[in-house]
Design goal:
By secondary structure, the chain is α/β, with parallel strands linked by helices. Helix content is 34%, strand content 16%. It is built from 8 helices and 17 strands. It has helices at 22-27, 55-58, 147-154, 168-176, 178-224, 227-239, 241-261, 268-295; strands spanning 2-4, 41-43, 64-66, 86-88, 108-110, 133-135, 160-161, 164-165, 263-265, 311-312, 318-323, 328-333, 344-348, 352-357, 360-365, 376-379, 386-391. The strands form 4 sheets. Strands 2-3-4-5-6-7-8 form a 7-stranded mixed sheet, with helices on one face. Strands 10-15-14-13 form a 4-stranded antiparallel sheet, with no helix packed on it. It has a 4-stranded antiparallel sheet with strand order 11-12-17-16, with no helix packed on it. The protein is elongated, with a radius of gyration of 35 Å.
Length: 405
């Protein structure tokens, strides 16, 4: 079976493995109030897990464990889960069956689409006397001649293999042919294991080639980083960053095309390599996105000519009231009701007011000049709105109203 992509050096990708963490388990245990010690079922599928550990210490009462579609290379650290009844590790990088003897209550085991070529490793499941269902479809061992007969004859307790029920007559026939079938399986295993050895050696060779090529690229880049070349680079950057960005995009597209089009055997190494390549590309895009955010120019609040602009970055509703009776202007800004007041910064100037809401500016030009020193700001007890009272700079004497006797 072939996948179409270029084999790159795994050393180019981040080597940090993804483990099962307590935080991850708690997040996936929401149905159990995030309590993990009494957890009976958990789904950790598609979490990019590369090593299986800690579950046998944190979740001793687990009965159902979903780990499909990860990057797990080995079954380990689940042997102490005495109550485990169903284990799903489909679509991983597992090459042999092991370390399940301690799962005394195991009834169903799903190993679909892994890389199990050592079929004789199923003998380890003889100790799981309650095992009734086993799924091995999509593994290299299923292509062996006599595969089903060998499994049926080896695991007497099994009732279903690859969703197909095992008939009594089938088991009798398999037991009769067992010595001959076992010998055939052993021979085919040896051929497969030799093939895997060659694949691993080929992977190591490619990795070394890529490592040497990368080293040469680094050395050539260091040689190019002379003062003259740096000045040329700065000049080109000044001429147009758009061209450089277009060139980078084209280069990335070409690298993607080479990676996905060149045929490579479907192995645990190539699957892990593909995952790391995709992860590297994702992180690179995230870094570019973050850098663009940082490079985003600051919003203009006052022009070069000194003109104050009206700005509402937080997009809040507001009202500006002219309180003639008290000779003041009142701004009612509809900030979020539960927003902490420490995240608000009010700046009143004679001709405008500026409010920073979580760092985002709200600025409004006032219709009249006000007294900044006499202004006051408070939060409404009912709505949570920010209410700013700004006395006018021009004093107004109002006529006293005549009161009828």
């Amino acid at each position: 079976m072939l996948l179409c992509h270029l084999s790159l050096d795994l050393t180019h990708f981040p080597k940090q493995l993804t483990f099962v963490t307590e935080d991850l388990v708690r997040r996936r245990a929401e149905h159990n109030n995030c309590e993990i010690f009494s957890l009976e079922e958990i789904s950790l599928h598609q979490q990019e897990i590369e090593k299986l550990e800690y579950l046998d210490k944190w979740c001793r009462d687990l009965k159902i464990l979903y780990l499909q579609n990860n990057l797990i290379p080995k079954i380990e650290n689940v042997g102490k889960l005495k109550k485990l009844e169903y284990l799903n590790v489909a679509l991983n990088n597992i090459e042999r069956i092991e370390n399940l003897e301690g799962c005394e209550e195991l009834k169903k085991l799903d190993l679909t689409a892994n890389f199990i070529g050592e079929l004789s490793s199923i003998e380890a499941l003889k100790y799981n006397i309650h095992l009734k269902e086993l799924f091995l479809v999509g593994n290299p061992c299923t292509e062996f001649e006599g595969y089903r007969e060998f499994v049926v004859a080896t695991l007497h307790q099994l009732k279903f293999l690859d969703s197909k029920e095992i008939e009594r007559s089938e088991r009798i026939q398999a037991l009769q042919n067992y010595p001959e079938v076992k010998q055939k399986i052993r021979e085919q295993e040896q051929v497969y294991l030799l093939k895997r050895t060659r694949e691993k050696e080929e992977t190591q060779r490619r990795m070394q080639e890529k490592k040497d090529k990368k080293q040469k690229q680094v050395e050539s880049e260091l040689e190019c980083n002379s003062p003259d070349s740096l000045q040329d680079k700065e000049k080109h950057q000044e001429e147009g960053d758009g061209k450089q960005e277009t060139w980078r995009t084209a280069e990335d597209d070409e690298e993607d095309r080479r990676f996905w089009e060149e045929p490579t055997p479907y192995t645990p190494e190539s699957r892990l390599e593909t995952h790391r390549y995709i992860e590297q590309k994702r992180r690179a895009k995230d870094d570019i996105r973050e850098s663009k955010k940082r490079e985003k120019p600051l919003r203009t609040l006052i022009t070069a000519e000194g003109k104050v602009l009206n700005v509402n970055v937080p997009k809040l509703y507001f009202s500006l009231k002219d309180d003639e009776e008290n000779n003041q202007i009142i701004l009612d800004l509809a900030v979020y009701r539960h927003l902490d007041s420490s995240l608000l910064d009010v700046d009143v100037q004679p001709t405008y007011i500026r409010v920073l809401v979580k760092g985002k500016p709200f600025q409004l030009v006032l219709p009249e000049e006000v007294k900044p020193d006499s202004s006051s700001a408070k939060r409404s007890q009912t709505t949570g709105h920010l209410v700013v009272s700004m006395p006018k700079a021009k004093e107004v004497i109002l006529d006293k109203q005549k009161v009828s006797t």
